[in-house]
């Protein structure tokens, strides 16, 4: 995905950021959220 697809026109985002890294977004995969940088995972 392109970077502009993560942000709204006013510069805000609805995506959740990684609590461990802080600078990457969590990818959403059905039953979990995963950070590709540090491998942090939240199961829902």
UniProtKB/TrEMBL annotation:
Keywords: Metal-binding, Ribonucleoprotein, Ribosomal protein, Zinc, Zinc-finger
Cofactor note: Binds 1 zinc ion per subunit.
InterPro entries, alphabetized: Ribosomal_eS31, Ribosomal_eS31_arc, Ribosomal_zn-bd
GO terms assigned for molecular function: structural constituent of ribosome; zinc ion binding
Reported cofactor(s): Zn(2+)
Chain ranges of the Small ribosomal subunit protein eS31 domain: 3-41
Zinc finger (C4-type): 18-38
Transmembrane segments: none
A GO BP entry: translation
GO cellular component, one term: ribosome
Matches recorded under Pfam families: Ribosomal_S27
Amino-acid positions noted as binding Zn(2+) in the UniProt annotation, renumbered to this chain: 18, 21, 35, 38
Subunit-structure text: Part of the 30S ribosomal subunit.
Family: Belongs to the eukaryotic ribosomal protein eS31 family.
HAMAP family, per the entry: Ribosomal_eS31
NCBIfam families: PRK00432.1
Protein name stated in the entry: Small ribosomal subunit protein eS31
């Amino acid at each position: 995905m392109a970077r502009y697809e993560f942000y709204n026109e006013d510069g805000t985002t609805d995506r959740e950021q990684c609590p461990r890294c802080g600078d990457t977004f969590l990818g959403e995969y059905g039953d979990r959220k995963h950070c590709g940088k540090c491998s942090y995972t939240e199961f829902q």
